[in-house]
TrEMBL record, chain A:
The keyword Phosphoprotein does not apply. The keyword ATP-binding applies. It comes from the Bacteria. Keywords: ATP-binding, Nucleotide-binding, Sugar transport, Transport. Residues 4-234 form the ABC transporter domain. It comes from Marinomonas phaeophyticola. SMART domains: AAA. InterPro entries: AAA+_ATPase (IPR003593), ABC_transporter-like_ATP-bd (IPR003439), ABC_transporter-like_CS (IPR017871), ABC_transpr_MalK-like (IPR015855), ABC_transpr_MalK/UgpC-like (IPR047641), Mo/tungstate-bd_C_term_dom (IPR008995), NA-bd_OB-fold (IPR012340), P-loop_NTPase (IPR027417). This is Sn-glycerol-3-phosphate ABC transporter ATP-binding protein UgpC. It holds the Pfam family ABC_tran. GO terms for molecular function: ATP binding.
TrEMBL record, chain B:
The chain crosses the membrane at residues 9-31, 64-90, 102-119, 154-174, 207-230, 250-277. InterPro entries: MetI-like, MetI-like_sf. It is a multi-pass membrane protein. The keyword Cell membrane applies. Residues 65-276 form the ABC transmembrane type-1 domain. Keywords: Cell membrane, Membrane, Transmembrane, Transmembrane helix, Transport. It comes from the Bacteria. Its main location: membrane. CDD domains: TM_PBP2. PROSITE patterns: ABC_TM1 (PS50928). It comes from Marinomonas phaeophyticola. This is Sugar ABC transporter permease.
C-alpha cells in the first residue's frame, strides 16, 4: 500500500537532534513536498532517504524492501541538488548518460534514452556543451534530465528552483508539474517556499524543528491547520492571528474584546473544556469592510494593490494590525476609519499551547 | 610627451631586468666560444664551436642526458601517482588526520643536502643502514644501493623530497572538490572507485599540470643530492647535465666547455618544457 514508509526516524548530528521521530508513508506516484522554515531538517530528511546521511535510529522501507542501511548507489533513487551538481568536465550528453554507462547499459539503449530525454527537456542544442557554458535554467534542465534518464523509483529534489530568477522559477515549476503528470513517478520535493509547496504537491509535509507538524493536501492545510505554526506558514498574506487578552465568558457565548470592537462566539461550538486564553485566527479573505456596523473597527494604515485584488492593513484601537482582502476597485483611502465584518464560520481558534481547538459546525456544515 | 615620460619612468626597471638577464647570458655565450681554461691563463683565443664539440663528445655527455631525462620522468611519475593516491586516501576524515598530513608534508622542509645525507648514511648504507637491517632481518643479502643502483638511489631521494610538494597541492585541490557532485555520482550508482576515476582525476588535471611544470624546473637542475651521495658515479651512472657541467668547470677547470654545457642545458630545458607544456597544457585550458 505505501510505497515509501519512514518509521520513527531519528537523526543526530553529534548532540544536535536534527530529526525527531519522523513517521511518514508515501504512496506510489505521489508528489510529496517537504516544506518548513530554514534549518528545520528538510534537507536532512531528504538526504537520509537518499542514503547520503545515515539515520541514528528508525527505518526506511522502499517498495517492500528495507533500505535503511543500503548504500545510496544501490537505492535506485535520483536526486536533483540545489547547486545542480553537474559533472563539470563532462558534456551535457555525458552528464545525462553517466549513470547508464556505469550501469553498463548497452550503447544503443543509452543513446536512445539520452535522445528522448534531451528532446523532452529541449536540451538537443546543448548536448555537446560543458555545464559552465550553460545558463542557470539550462543547468537546471540538465540536472533534471540526468535524474529522469535513469527511471528511478523516486525522484528527490532539494530546493531545485531556489537559484533561478522569479520568472524562470514559475516556468520550471509548471514544467515539473507537467513532468510528474507525464512520468507518474513518485517525487519528493523540498522547499522553503510555501507557494511552491501549495502549487506542486499532492500532499504537503510541514516540518518544524525536526518533527512533522502536519501532513495533508494543500487545501487541507490551508483550511484546517492543526496548529498555529501551520496556520502562519501556509497562505500569503498570512492568516491574521489575534491574541485576545480580554475574553469574557457569558452564558452561551465567548466575547473577545479587540480594541473598541468585540467578536462573539457560541460556546456550544467548542467541544471539550474552554481554554483560559485563546488566539483567534482568521484569513484576510474571510473578512469584509462595511460602511455600517461591523464586529471590529479600525483605521486603514495602508493598502497593498496586487492588481486583481488588494489587501488593506488595518490598525485596531488595541494597536493590533489585521489584514483584510478587499476588492481592487474599492475606493477606501489610507487613514479612513472602517468597520470590519468577520465570517465566524471560517474562524480558527488556537489554545494556549498553539494547538487548534476543535470546533463543531454551527448551522453550516462545510468545515 | 606623455608617452616619453612613461617610458622614462619605466626605463630603470626595464634596463635593470635586461642587464640582469643579458649580462650573464652574453658572458656565458662569450665564454663558450673562447678557450678559457683556468690551468692555462691568458690563452683566451676565439675557438668557435669547439667547446660545444668537446662537451658533446665528452664520454659523459650521452649518459648525462639520459640520466637527466630518466631522473626527471621517474620522479614526476612517482610523485604524481603517489601524490594523487595518498592525497585521496587522506581526504576522508579519520582519527589523527592532521598529524598524518603534517608528517607527509614535512620532508619538503628538509634541505636537499641533509636529505641526501640522511638517505646515504641512515637508510642506504650497506652496513648500518635501515634498508640493510631490513634485508638482514628477512635473511637477505644487504644491497649496496649507492654503488649498485646509483641513479635509482638518487631517484628515491629526490622523490621523497618532492612528494610532499605534490601532496600539498593535491590535498588543497581535493578540498575544493564539490561534495554535492560526489553525492550526485553516488546516487547515479558510482562506487568510490568510479567517483575517483571519473570525478576526482579530472578535477585534479589542472593541479597535476602545475605540479609537473614546477617540478620540471627544479628536477632538471638536481645537483646537491648527486654531489653528496654518489658524486655522479660510479662512472657516469648517476651524472646528470648539471653535475657534468660542474665536473667540467670545477674538476677540469674548463670554463669554456662548462659554459657550452650550460647553454646546452638551457636548450634542453626549453625542449622538455615545450613538450611538457604541450602535453599538459591541454589540461590547463579545460
Ligand atoms: N553536517 C551537519 N552537521 C551538523 N549539523 C548539521 C549538519 N547538517 C545540518 N545540520 C543542522 O541540522 C539542521 C537541519 O538542517 P537542514 O536539514 O539542512 O535544514 P533545511 O530544512 O534548511 O534543509 C540545521 O539546524 C543544521 O544546522
Ligand atoms: Mg536545505
Amino acid at each position: 500500500m505505501s510505497y515509501l514508509a519512514i518509521t520513527e526516524l531519528q537523526k543526530y548530528y553529534d548532540s544536535y537532534h536534527a530529526l525527531r521521530g519522523i513517521n511518514l508513508s508515501i504512496k506510489e506516484g505521489e508528489f510529496v513536498v517537504f516544506v518548513g522554515p530554514s534549518g528545520c531538517g528538510k534537507s536532512t530528511l531528504l538526504r537520509t532517504i537518499a542514503g547520503l546521511e545515515s539515520s541514528s535510529s528508525g527505518s526506511i522501507n522502499l517498495d517492500g524492501r528495507d533500505i535503511t542501511e543500503l548504500a545510496s548507489s544501490k537505492r535506485d533513487l535520483a536526486m536533483v541538488f540545489q547547486s545542480y551538481a553537474l559533472y563539470p568536465h563532462m558534456t551535457v550528453a555525458e552528464n545525462l548518460s553517466f549513470a547508464l554507462r556505469l550501469a553498463k547499459v548497452p550503447d544503443e539503449e543509452v543513446k536512445e534514452k539520452v535522445r528522448s530525454v534531451s528532446a523532452s527537456l529541449q536540451l538537443d542544442p546543448l548536448l555537446e556543451r560543458k555545464p559552465k557554458e550553460l545558463s542557470g535554467g539550462q543547468r537546471q534542465r540538465v540536472a533534471i534530465g540526468r535524474a529522469i534518464v535513469r527511471q528511478p523509483k523516486v525522484f528527490l529534489f532539494d530546493e531545485p528552483l531556489s537559484n533561478l530568477d522569479a520568472a524562470l522559477r514559475v516556468q520550471m515549476r509548471l514544467e515539473l508539474a507537467r513532468l510528474h503528470k507525464k512520468l507518474g513517478t513518485t517525487m519528493i520535493y523540498v522547499t522553503h517556499d510555501q507557494v511552491e509547496a501549495m502549487t506542486l504537491a499532492d500532499r504537503v509535509v510541514i516540518l518544524n524543528a525536526g518533527s512533522i507538524e502536519q501532513v495533508g493536501t494543500p487545501l487541507e492545510l490551508y483550511r484546517q491547520p492543526n496548529s498555529r505554526f501551520v496556520a502562519e506558514f501556509i497562505g500569503t498574506p498570512k492568516m491574521n492571528l489575534l491574541p485576545t487578552e480580554n475574553m469574557i465568558r457569558q452564558e452561551n457565548e465567548l466575547v473577545f474584546q479587540l480594541g473598541a470592537g468585540e467578536i462573539r462566539f457560541p460556546t456550544a461550538r467548542i467541544s471539550g473544556p474552554i481554554p483560559s486564553s485563546i488566539v483567534l485566527g482568521i484569513r484576510p479573505e474571510h473578512m469584509s469592510l462595511s460602511e455600517e456596523k461591523g464586529e471590529l473597527n479600525g483605521r486603514i494604515e495602508l493598502i497593498e494593490h496586487l492588481g486583481s485584488e488588494a489587501y488593506a492593513h488595518i490598525q485596531l484601537s488595541s494597536n493590533q494590525t489585521i489584514i483584510v482582502k478587499v476588492s481592487a476597485r474599492s475606493d477606501i483611502k489610507d487613514g479612513q476609519l472602517v468597520n470590519i465584518n468577520i465570517d465566524r464560520d471560517e474562524m480558527i481558534l488556537f489554545n494556549e499551547s498553539d494547538r487548534v481547538i476543535s470546533l463543531l459546525a454551527e448551522e453550516v456544515e462545510d468545515v | 610627451m606623455k608617452r616619453s615620460i612613461t617610458r622614462l619612468l619605466m626605463a630603470p626597471s626595464v634596463i635593470l631586468l635586461l642587464v640582469w638577464m643579458i649580462v650573464p647570458l652574453s658572458m656565458t655565450i662569450y665564454f663558450s666560444t673562447i678557450r678559457y681554461n683556468l690551468l692555462y691563463p691568458g690563452q683566451n683565443n676565439f675557438v668557435g664551436l669547439m667547446n660545444f664539440e668537446f662537451f658533446m663528445t665528452d664520454p659523459g655527455f650521452l649518459p648525462a642526458i639520459f640520466n637527466t631525462l630518466t631522473l626527471l620522468l621517474s620522479v614526476l611519475i612517482i610523485t604524481v601517482v603517489l601524490g594523487v593516491a595518498l592525497s585521496a586516501l587522506i581526504d576522508k576524515p579519520f582519527f589523527g588526520r592532521s598529524i598524518v598530513r603534517v608528517l607527509l608534508i614535512s620532508p619538503f622542509f628538509i634541505m636537499p643536502t641533509v636529505n641526501a645525507l640522511i638517505w646515504k648514511n641512515m637508510m642506504m648504507n650497506p652496513v648500518y643502514g635501515v634498508f640493510a637491517w631490513i634485508s638482514q632481518t628477512l635473511g637477505f643479502e644487504p644491497i649496496d644501493w649507492l654503488s649498485d643502483f646509483p641513479l635509482g638511489s638518487v631517484i628515491m631521494m629526490v622523490s621523497w623530497q618532492w612528494l610532499p610538494f605534490a601532496i600539498l597541492v593535491f590535498v588543497t585541490a581535493l578540498q575544493s572538490q564539490d561534495t554535492e557532485q560526489k553525492e550526485a555520482a553516488a546516487m547515479d550508482g558510482a562506487t568510490s572507485w568510479d567517483i575517483f576515476r571519473y570525478l576526482t582525476i579530472p578535477h585534479l588535471a589542472r593541479p597535476i599540470a602545475v605540479v609537473v611544470m614546477i617540478e620540471t624546473i627544479f628536477l632538471l637542475a638536481i645537483f646537491a643530492e648527486i654531489f653528496v651521495s654518489t658524486g655522479g658515479g660510479p662512472g657516469y651512472d648517476s651524472t646528470n647535465l648539471a653535475y657534468l657541467i660542474y665536473n667540467q668547470a670545477l674538476l677540469q677547470y674548463d670554463v669554456g666547455v662548462a659554459s657550452a654545457g650550460g647553454l646546452f642545458a638551457v636548450i634542453l630545458a626549453n625542449i622538455v618544457a615545450f613538450f611538457l607544456i604541450r602535453a599538459v597544457g591541454k589540461n590547463l585550458t579545460v
